[in-house]
TrEMBL record:
Family: Belongs to the diacylglycerol/lipid kinase family.
Pfam families for the chain: DAGK_cat (PF00781), YegS_C (PF19279)
Keywords linked to the UniProt accession: ATP-binding, Kinase, Lipid biosynthesis, Lipid metabolism, Magnesium, Metal-binding, Nucleotide-binding, Phospholipid biosynthesis, Phospholipid metabolism, Transferase
Species this protein is from: Halanaerobium congolense
One Gene Ontology term, aspect cellular component: plasma membrane
Protein name according to UniProt: Lipid kinase, YegS/Rv2252/BmrU family
Amino acid sequence: MGKKIMAVINPVSSGGKTAKRWPKINKYFKDEFANFTEKFTTKPGDAVKIAKEAVEKDYDYLLAVGGDGTVNEIVNGMLLAKTKNLKAKLIIYAQGTGSDLSRTLNLPKEISKFIELIKRGKSRKIKVIEAEFSNSEQEKENRYFFNVADCGMGAEVAKKLNEDNKMISGSLNYLIKIFSVLFNYQNKEMKIEADNKLIYQGKTNTAVIAHGNYFGGGIKVAPEADLYGSSLNLVLLKDFSKLGIILNMIKGYQGNHLSHTLVESHQAKEIKIITTEEVKLELDGESVGFCDASFEISDKKISVII
């Protein structure tokens, strides 16, 4: 493959294991691809800048080596690039704590199979979602995401994970954080609109805005979501008790929770969440701020190697 690849590596992803694994993984890529460049992130926001510059320098592929948060930054960087026609394609080599987007895409983990996937070059265009929310400085901010956003308990779990050193990676880390947050968490009052219609108003554990199917390290929270479609899947986990969340967690991993009386699933182009108290928000596993928030399916698309 003669095309240019820019690898964006988050060395602290997967509890720092990515930094240890990369020298061996890197050898496979450099042996197979002549025009292969790598750059490491050192702080939040680095992947945005690297991706933006790579697109503006006419790289053909952006290779995300990290978790869903790394992918999120690269997507935002690609869309910020000053280019008339976005030709660069995204490759996702999942190395994160959750890596839930790769589950929906069913991407291979074995390096030899992953390299074959790149060589095959098959891609599909995926629409991004635009979110507007209040950031940590209580200023309005707009940001794109690919997979899942949520307001409520799920965002509290994401914040705790982001603050943690993630020495324990994968689904186990999510489970530990879910239980640690659940112990003190109180459901929040939310008013939720979909396509300008009031859908629900009342106490809510978590409101999920999904394009992909999974969040939380493998919980199939939105089995009705279509990553390649043109609508959002709103999943409401309403006024669950703490015991109710625990008892239905297994169903959540299997995607069998939608039949519960305290769960609703809706399809919409635009979703608004209005709150009267502080409710945290996460996008693609990254704690970004607070609701009130709005979400809209965008016409902007990213080509992803699948």
